[in-house]
Design a protein that fits this description.
Largest sheet: 4 strands, antiparallel
Number of strands: 6
Number of domains: 1
Number of helices: 3
Strand order of the largest sheet: 4-5-1-6
Strand content: 15-25%
Distance between the termini: 18 Å
Shape: elongated
Length: 156
């Protein structure tokens, strides 16, 4: 379930873990999202504190940041090995392109088979929160009067 809220004021969350739904989690996680500005020189970001269990706080950060870091580290490692061992530049380019395609395919497969249980995406005026748990999404929407669903195929 995707719920859109304005960037300001900060949204209120139910006192449940945003990943597993456990009541009154012991910790919170500070999540950061980059906001596209259309300029290379202006950087904008959005930060929100969400309630979650201790283990899930770590998994939220690893899934959001670690996936990209692992992707680029794996690709650069493969690329270095290919460039060092390839007999020609053309073969190095072909193998590097194939490696990139393979890593992208693996990342897409992981996202498809193991979807994120909670995520956020910020824009200049609103934030979209993704909840895998529908009950938690409905509770979140009820706590934030300015919130609305993103709509679906049946909405005009």
């Amino acid at each position: 379930m995707q719920v859109v809220v304005p960037r300001y004021p900060p949204p209120r969350f139910p006192n449940r873990c945003v990943v597993c739904g456990r009541e009154r989690p012991a910790t919170t996680a500070q999540l950061l999202a980059q906001v596209p500005t259309g300029s290379r020189f202006v950087i904008d970001s959005y930060s929100v504190t969400v309630p979650c269990c201790h283990g899930h706080a770590l998994s939220l950060h690893v899934r959001r940041l670690g996936g990209s870091l692992l992707f680029w580290a794996l690709y650069m490692g493969i690329l270095v090995l290919v460039v060092q061992r390839a007999p020609s530049k053309m073969e190095a380019g072909l193998i590097g392109g194939a490696a990139l395609a393979l890593v992208l395919l693996a990342r897409t497969a992981i996202e498809r088979w193991f979807p994120r249980r909670f995520d956020l995406d910020a824009s200049s005026d609103s934030v979209t929160f993704l909840f895998n748990d529908l009950n938690l999404g409905y509770e979140f929407r009820a706590l934030n009067p300015a919130a609305h669903d993103t709509g679906g195929l049946t909405s005009a």
